[in-house]
Amino acid sequence: MALVRLDKFLANAGIGTRSQVRDYIKYRRVWVDGKPCIKADTKIDKDKNEVTFDKRIVSYDEFVYVILNKPKGVISATEDENETTVLDLLEDKYKKMKLFPVGRLDKDTVGLLILSNDGRFAHNTLSPKKHIEKSYYAHINGEITKEHIEKFKEGIVISGGYKCLPAKLSIEYSAENFSKVNITIKEGKYHQIKRMFEALGRKVVYLKRISFDDIVLDESLQEGEYRLANDEEMKIIEKFIEK
Ligand code: URA
Is 218 tagged catalytic? Predict the structure, then answer.
């Protein structure tokens, strides 16, 4: 990202006018990376430098998009009395930003989950009419055949009688008792993939989300690790914000 002068950074973050923030800088109320910074023209990289005003972190971006590789055993919620939530995984500085998971992965599902505080992004990607593609990798407890691929194409009727939109299924490996498959769906019904395989008499024993639209899971993130969306991912995210 482009570097920005410290006084501009503070003014844009709503700390005060340019002349006010210059005073704050002069009186050592502004610190950069743990040290007082008294030069208003210091160049700040918002992704790398931590700026504080009166010891409180200054958040430059109104909206934040966190790319998480969700681990097993964590729920896609903002708070819960008994369970660890995806927000519990984040550093304190994100806790004040009112982030929420954009969509939901089951407690035992791992993989790509975006956390944000941008309601427009959530609305424009999650609304059932948007048909955003989400891809998963799964292990199944039995054989998966070409007939199953056809059933996915036609639209599987899941428990409760709902007929899913046509979905893509591809087989990486299949034997009598175990298969590895990839699935792409365009909607997000509760436990959808598990219910789709259940309707075929199979059970999902491992599920990992690989992509959300064109954002692909960063395999360098270990489960439980996260980072802010990079420039490439921001371009994809911006497509949904501008709509
Ligand atoms: N489908 C499921 O069954 N579970 C998930 O977590 C996501 C999609």
Answer: no
Question: What single DSSP character describes residue 160?
Answer: T
Residue 16 pLDDT level (bands cut at 50, 70, 90): confident
Instruction: Name the residue of 110, 133, 193, 210 to mutate for ligand 1: max ligand atoms within 8 A of Cβ.
Output: 193
- 161's CB contacts (< 8 A; 6+ apart) are none
Predicted local confidence at residue 243, as pLDDT: 53
Predicted TM-score (pTM) of this structure: 0.79
Alpha-carbon gap, residue 78 to 100, rounded angstroms: 6
**95 sits in which H/E element:** helix 92-95
What is the widest separation between alpha-carbon atoms in the chain? 73
Task: Go through the domains of the chain in sequence order and give each one's CATH number.
Answer: 4-57 (3.10.290.10), 65-128+218-241 (3.30.70.580), 134-212 (3.30.70.1560)
Q: For the chain, how many residues are written?
A: 243
How far, in Å, from the CA of 33 to the mean position of ligand 1? 40
Write the pLDDT tens digit of every residue in 92-133: 767 767 899 999 999 999 999 999 989 999 999 998 888 999
Which residue in this structure is represented by tokens 């743990």? Answer: 34
